[in-house]
Structure formats: structure tokens, C-alpha cells
Design goal:
alpha+beta
Length: about 240
């Protein structure tokens, strides 16, 4: 079953490179001393993803593509041609991220191209399977970005994240103890603050300090060098009696 057409960066590159033949052309090299000659762009892309092709020939093509990323002397058509050659290895991941993680297709395609070019630029000259290295790196990075973004999806009501009922937890409280290091400026004794559990859900300790008005008094808390303790904050959940 064919996938529905999409008007985006991938489609635009496909159109612009349909009849492109940038110079200097890629050369077919199977590991022997003899070079078989120049390749058309379409033939080069076919060989890049043909598992029956000679491994050394495919590896040589990927390394030549990586050189086109580094070089400033190649023809002006090569930047888009480099992207065009990588599209077959990126398109499936773009489709998966768009549908599984509900991401914007245009954003996913742009990120995939960026990571693909970065992976090509960082490719080791002696990598025996450069195609797998580049495509796996680009696709894994982008998939991780959107999976992480989905976990951090904003919600309107923090108190009801996950369907928790405020009333159901009204009898519970969170208790925070702030213990500064002795003889340091700032607070000199333990500060204990107790609030209803539903008010604490989903908030960071720094936000709690500001909400409780303790931020100004804890002026000595901050980065003071590796391994140097400035305070201890303990957060525990307690149940009200009665």
C-alpha cells in the first residue's frame, strides 16, 4: 500500500533533485585498484540501499558523500543532492514519528535532515559500514527527541495530571524540611513547611520554595563548587490524623 503524498521538505528535495547531476560525480569503487567510472545520482542512490551490492562499493559511496559535506569546492548542487541520497533511509522514520508520536511532519523532516548531515560530517574515515552508522545515528536521535518531548507535553491543570482527584488526596500532606549547613549565612535552623498534597503534585522544589516564600531566606543555597554541601532538603508525604 502506498503512503499518502506529503508536501514538505522531503518532497521539495525530491522535486529539485529529480534531474540533477552535480559535479564532481560519485565514483563506483569496489575495493580494487580499478575505478569503474562515474555514477549518475539515481544509480548511486539505488546502490546505496541495495543489500546485494558489493559492501565495499556501498561503503565507498557513503564516504564520498561525506566528503561532499566537508568540501567547499564542490558544485553548488551537492548540498541538496547529499540530502536527496539520504531520503530513502530517513523517510520511514519520519512516517513513524509523525503517526506514533503525533508530531508535525515538517518539523520531523527538518530535524532528520539536520541530524543526518551532522552524522555525515562526523563519520569516521575507516568506518566499514558508514551507511548504517549515519542513518541509525540520525533516526535514533530524532526519535529520542520526540519521545522525550511527548513525555513533557504541557497540560492546563497540573493538579489533575493523570486523573488524580484533588478531593481524594485532600487528607494527605507533603512535609518539607530545610536543613542548612551549620555556621553558613542564611537560615540557621530547620524550616518545616506542610501543604496539602494536591498543591505539590508536579512541582519542583525550587517552585515550592518560591510559593512558600522561602526563596529569599535561603539566599546561601546555590552552586558553590564541586562536592560542597550547602543544605539538605527532605520531602516526605504524611497523612493527617483525625
Amino acid at each position: 500500500m502506498s503512503l499518502p503524498s506529503h508536501s514538505g521538505i522531503f518532497a521539495a528535495v525530491e522535486r529539485r533533485c529529480a534531474d540533477s547531476e552535480p559535479t564532481p560525480p560519485l565514483q563506483l569503487h569496489d575495493g580494487s585498484e580499478q575505478v569503474d567510472g562515474p555514477l549518475t545520482l539515481a544509480r548511486a542512490r539505488q546502490l546505496l540501499y541495495d543489500r546485494s551490492a558489493h559492501p565495499e562499493a556501498r561503503a565507498s559511496l557513503w564516504h564520498q558523500i561525506a566528503e561532499r559535506v566537508h568540501s567547499d569546492t564542490v558544485g553548488t548542487d551537492w548540498p541538496e543532492a547529499v540530502v536527496w541520497l539520504g531520503l530513502p533511509g530517513l523517510r520511514r522514520t519520519a512516517y513513524k514519528i509523525t503517526w506514533r508520536l503525533q508530531a508535525e511532519r515538517g518539523d520531523v523532516e527538518a530535524e532528520l535532515i539536520t541530524c543526518y548531515l551532522e552524522a555525515l560530517a562526523g563519520l569516521a574515515a575507516d568506518d566499514p559500514d558508514p551507511g548504517s552508522t549515519v542513518l541509525r545515528s540520525a533516526c535514533s536521535r530524532v526519535y529520542g527527541v520526540w519521545r522525550h518531548a511527548r513525555l513533557e507535553k504541557p497540560v492546563e491543570d497540573v493538579e489533575r495530571v493523570g486523573g488524580a482527584s484533588v478531593e481524594a488526596e485532600a487528607a494527605d500532606c507533603w512535609q518539607a524540611d530545610y536543613d542548612p549547613v551549620p555556621r553558613r549565612p542564611g537560615l540557621s535552623s530547620t524550616v518545616r513547611i506542610t501543604v496539602p498534597a494536591h498543591r505539590v503534585e508536579g512541582l519542583r522544589l525550587g517552585a515550592l520554595a518560591r510559593s512558600w516564600g522561602a526563596a529569599d531566606t535561603a539566599t546561601s543555597v546555590g552552586f558553590s563548587g564541586r562536592g560542597r554541601q550547602v543544605a539538605t532538603v527532605t520531602l516526605r508525604r504524611v497523612r493527617r490524623s483525625g
